């Protein structure tokens, strides 16, 4: 619908509006990085520095090496372990399930798809106490395994739904012709379909990574012990401990937590936009 | 269908063709079990980590369940007492009303701004379109918690850049203006944060829909003298109606259960009693107050509310996919 003619005055106005949208969208991200690169005393002036006057990495050093009562590195380690295990386990399980619902037709197939989409919508806010108690019963509170288990269940419905779309996109005729040529059903699948699914698996995995990396509430309830915190819980604790006295260091911590997500997100977003609409997930 | 399991071709269009049944009985028998075997790992995890706690939640909402019960005391059944207490508590209704109001305000703001941005992207040249896309993607990629903390810094009472800019633009005195202490301006800040994160999703989705609207129809309408608003209302909107419905439902679901932004913003400087939404209220009642039975009853009410909205949405999207 770009064919509608535009007058010159209108097009200047539209360009200006685009600039406003751009600045408004980018400014908080810019402000986070900008603050994190300045000495803490220089961000506490009557006029804020829109560009750092004295570039420094001191805030990052504070966060990483001298964070006081909220150690950063253990939280980073926990986050990495939990997210990576979550992604690997969820991908394997979701992959198997998505094969079942795309390549086979069975009586409860529709019910299963309906159920995972509904499960997706159950708010974590409502589940915190019972999840806590169930994990407590299994002696899995404040463990990597426990939080991983919770996250696998959290990302699984979306992962199944998205992979199902990718598997559907590979024509089953390719497998059939390999089977006619003497391949077993399993062999046909691994040699023909699986390689074609690789990009879909990567994209889905990255989205699971982002979800698990950003998750805050369940981690706050289930892994509350300081040495078992993940990065979001750490960031909030660091902000609470530091109060309003060292915003520069808090911004350095925020940057460190946000960067992997931003990079990954930019890599896969195009592939996932349609999946997001149907799968309904937000960090 | 004679056998419950048949190998099928499922095209993207959703059309299904059954293959002739496998002549070998052993193969067929194996095929009958394959899909179930493939589903087992996912089913076990979902049953254990979502299903079982959900059952516990329902049971707990009919019990007297406080700190003592966490440490092993018996939890006596109290029938509907927890629900009666919740529904008779004016604070609960205040929280629910606040959540609904916040949700409505945020959905409307995000929809209006998102649609405007989508229409803008559709009209500008490639350079500006890329510029807007890059900005939106950055905002979209930002984790909700990080975004809240960054906005909290920008709205800081003493050194926040917002107060500086407000003073520079309006000429009024914003020195040490505290945004989070007053519930209304607290929710204004919360709305800015939530909207900032939601607009990219709305804008990109609607923009994708806009590219489906045929140029010829719009040009014809313009030649016939239809103004911009008429073209949007009479041509573009009907084309996009189903996209609008889906995006609105998703926004309602996300905004009604908002937790991270409110919780983190309270940690930066809000008054909890006057700013809690449903999710935060459950957290405070259960984890903060130690009254798990009452918290459970509120949680059950919330689950029912969300699932009711979701069933409507899921039915709709499954039906659309089959068409």
From TrEMBL, chain A:
Membrane association type: Multi-pass membrane protein
How is this protein named in the record? Carbohydrate ABC transporter permease
- Which Pfam families does the record match to this protein? BPD_transp_1
Query: Which PANTHER family does the entry mention?
Result: INNER MEMBRANE ABC TRANSPORTER PERMEASE PROTEIN YCJP, MALTOSE TRANSPORT SYSTEM PERMEASE-RELATED
Q: Where found, per UniProt?
A: Cell membrane
Q: ABC transmembrane type-1 domain spans which residues?
A: 76-268
Q: Write the record's keywords in alphabetical order, separated by commas.
A: Cell membrane, Membrane, Transmembrane, Transmembrane helix, Transport
Q: Secretion signal: which residues?
A: none
The protein's superkingdom reads: Bacteria
Listed InterPro entries: BP-dep_ABC_trans_perm (IPR050901), MetI-like (IPR000515), MetI-like_sf (IPR035906)
Q: What is its main location?
A: membrane
Upper lineage ranks?
Answer: Bacteria, Bacillati, Actinomycetota, Actinomycetes, Micrococcales
List membrane-spanning regions: 12-33, 80-100, 112-132, 144-167, 188-210, 247-268
Q: Does the keyword Transport apply?
A: yes
- Family affiliation: Belongs to the binding-protein-dependent transport system permease family.
TrEMBL record, chain B:
Organism annotation: Herbiconiux gentiana
Is Nucleus one of the keywords?
no
Q: This protein's superkingdom?
A: Bacteria
Q: Does the keyword Membrane apply?
A: yes
SUPFAM superfamilies, sorted: MetI-like
Regions crossing the membrane: 36-55, 99-120, 132-154, 184-211, 232-254, 292-314
Q: What keywords sit in the KW lines?
A: Cell membrane, Membrane, Transmembrane, Transmembrane helix, Transport
Protein family according to the UniProt entry: Belongs to the binding-protein-dependent transport system permease family.
Tell me how this protein sits in the membrane.
Multi-pass membrane protein
Q: Which residues form the ABC transmembrane type-1 domain?
A: 96-313
Pfam hit, one: BPD_transp_1
Q: Where in the cell is it found?
A: Cell membrane
Note the InterPro entries from the entry: MetI-like, MetI-like_sf, UgpAE/MalFG_permease
According to UniProt, the name of this protein is Sugar ABC transporter permease
């Amino acid at each position: 619908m770009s064919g509608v003619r535009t007058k010159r005055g209108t097009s200047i106005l539209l360009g200006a509006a685009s600039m406003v949208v751009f600045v408004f969208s980018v400014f908080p991200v810019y402000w986070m990085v900008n603050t994190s690169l300045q000495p803490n005393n220089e961000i506490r002036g009557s006029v804020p520095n829109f560009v750092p006057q004295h570039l420094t990495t001191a805030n990052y050093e504070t966060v990483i090496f001298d964070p006081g009562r909220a150690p950063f590195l253990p939280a980073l380690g926990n986050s990495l372990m939990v997210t990576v295990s979550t992604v690997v386990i969820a991908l394997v399980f979701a992959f198997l399930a998505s094969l079942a619902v795309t390549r086979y037709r069975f009586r409860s197939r529709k019910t299963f798809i309906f159920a995972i989409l509904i499960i997706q919508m159950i708010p974590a806010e409502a589940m915190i106490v019972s999840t806590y108690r169930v994990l407590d019963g299994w002696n899995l509170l404040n463990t990597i395994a426990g939080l991983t288990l919770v996250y696998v269940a959290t990302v699984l419905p979306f992962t199944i739904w998205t992979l199902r779309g990718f598997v559907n996109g590979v024509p089953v005729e390719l497998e059939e012709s390999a089977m006619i040529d003497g391949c077993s059903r399993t062999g046909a699948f691994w040699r023909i379909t699986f390689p074609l699914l690789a990009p879909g698996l990567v994209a889905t995995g990255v989205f699971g990574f982002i979800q698990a990396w950003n998750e805050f509430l369940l981690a706050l309830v289930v892994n509350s012990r300081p040495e078992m915190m993940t990065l979001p819980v750490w960031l909030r604790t660091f902000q609470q401990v530091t109060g309003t006295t060292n915003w520069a260091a808090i911004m350095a911590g925020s940057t460190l937590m946000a960067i992997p997500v931003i990079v990954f997100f930019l890599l896969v977003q195009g592939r996932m936009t349609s999946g997001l609409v149907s799968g309904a997930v937000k960090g | 269908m004679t056998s419950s399991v048949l190998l099928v071709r499922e095209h993207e269009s959703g059309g299904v063709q059954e293959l002739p049944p496998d002549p070998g009985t052993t193969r067929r028998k194996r095929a009958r079990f394959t899909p179930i075997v493939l589903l087992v790992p996912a089913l076990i995890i979902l049953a254990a980590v979502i299903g079982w706690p959900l059952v516990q939640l329902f049971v707990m909402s009919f019990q007297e369940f406080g700190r003592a019960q966490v440490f092993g005391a018996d939890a006596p059944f109290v029938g509907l007492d927890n629900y009666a207490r919740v529904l008779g508590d004016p604070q609960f209704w205040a929280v629910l009303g606040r959540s609904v109001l916040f949700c409505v305000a945020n959905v409307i703001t995000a929809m209006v701004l998102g649609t405007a941005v989508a229409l803008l992207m559709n009209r500008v040249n490639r350079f500006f379109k890329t510029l807007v896309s890059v900005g939106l993607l950055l905002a979209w990629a930002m984790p909700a918690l990080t975004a809240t903390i960054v906005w909290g810094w920008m709205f800081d009472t003493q050194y926040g850049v917002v107060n500086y800019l407000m003073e520079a633009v309006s000429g009024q005195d914003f020195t040490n203006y505290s945004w989070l202490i007053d519930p209304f301006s607290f929710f204004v800040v919360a709305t800015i944060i939530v909207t900032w994160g939601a607009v990219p999703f709305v804008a990109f989705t609607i923009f994708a829909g806009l590219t489906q609207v045929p140029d010829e129809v719009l040009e014809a309408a313009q030649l016939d003298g239809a103004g911009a608003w008429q073209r949007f209302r009479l041509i573009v909107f009907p084309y996009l109606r189903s996209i609008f419905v889906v995006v609105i439902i998703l926004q309602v679901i996300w905004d009604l259960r908002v937790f991270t932004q409110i919780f983190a913003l309270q940690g930066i400087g809000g008054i909890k009693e006057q700013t809690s939404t449903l999710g935060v209220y459950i957290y405070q009642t259960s984890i903060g107050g130690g009254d798990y039975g009452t918290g459970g009853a509120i949680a059950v009410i919330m689950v029912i509310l969300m699932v009711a909205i979701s069933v409507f949405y899921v039915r709709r999207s499954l039906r659309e996919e089959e068409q």
